[in-house]
């Protein structure tokens, strides 16, 4: 399947190398999703190649896909990554619990242990960084950041929970404050606040760039909002400010054979009359902005198309698949342009398998994905388990055992598995695991 899309603007892209979690929801033990590709030369177009200042070559997967039964941990893994990034970028409220603490709930010992995160990534100047965090319910336990400007790692900062003073704010609420030192300068952070988050506000030659990496590189919208009206409106506003991106999305709708050739987007005033109680004759008019989205279809007269005429169909009257394609298509094209890491929970939601495959191929294309964009998603669409589409190191599986512990593993973990193996056939036959175990229904319901 070929695509004729825009020539994307050249923007420096940062990339994720791997992400690990320990004691997070159903993942009791450490689980690592790696985007670092194996050295196989097969399907070389599926791999980004990036050299750093030492001419060290990094090979990263453009796409990773996760399969597994319902409630096996697929979404938990993606939620862990999105929650972790969000916690870095957004400041927690004073005295609030640490929002990314979410320990394994079915073991008393694990419930008393911290949740751990670790991410390796290519940051500014394609230098490798490793950022590690351990959190408890109310405080950050550990926080480490190292990087590799040369072959040996250098410590940027290392934090261990050490409460040095307690201040009272908000009517006697005790807030724990930590004094931490970076480059001989002291910084005060709340015990529930990540030190790295501090540099979203305070300038630092290196750490502000690392903060910006997390703020700008990860597109979490689709995973977080789950195709809501809010996400639709966010996508529409992006298109209103970027006419070229809008044209590209219209082209995507044409390629997807939706019979839609035009998108009509307006931001109009929505006047709501509100009755404020307790105020005499208190009827006031509140003006808000509202998105109006219509899809342009061709108009015909007795089977003959009328040139330059179109029928505008409201967004809510279109199919669920069309609505999904609008949202996910906008985010995909934006991620490709900006070289972002796009994280999607259930990419195949309401989409035909051919459309889902087309969206994946956008990331795998060397001509389209020129800025280092990456896609991480989960799905139940087994038609994507195509040995012609993916390498074995791009396909991941989750399973959950009898006590509720999730395990993450990759097809490349299977010794002797060839790249030309019929992945879908073997998966559906149960040779890889990652399938629901359904008993004989007659014995249950008889």
Describe this structure in words.
- The chain has two domains: 272 residues, no CATH class; 113 residues, no CATH class.
- The protein is 23% helix and 33% strand.
- The protein is built from ten helices and 20 strands.
- A six-stranded antiparallel beta sheet has the order 2-1-6-7-8-9, covered by helices on one side. The chain has a six-stranded mixed beta sheet with strand order 13-17-18-5-19-20, with helices on both faces.
- α6 crosses α7.
- The chain is globular.
- The two termini are 48 Å apart.
- The relative contact order is 0.17.
Which strands sit side by side, in order, in the main sheet? 2-1-6-7-8-9
Tell me the count of domains: 2
How many β-strands, per DSSP?
Answer: 20
Low-confidence stretches: 1-12, 163-175, 279-284
The tally of helices reads 10
In round numbers, the mean pLDDT is 87
Shape: globular
Strand fraction:
25-35%
Major β-sheet profile: 6 strands, antiparallel
Helix percentage? 10-25%
Q: Gyration radius, to the nearest Å?
A: 25 Å
Alpha-beta content class: alpha+beta
Distance between termini? 48 Å
Q: What's the helix-strand series?
A: EEEEEHHEEEEEEEHEHHHEEEHEHEEEHH
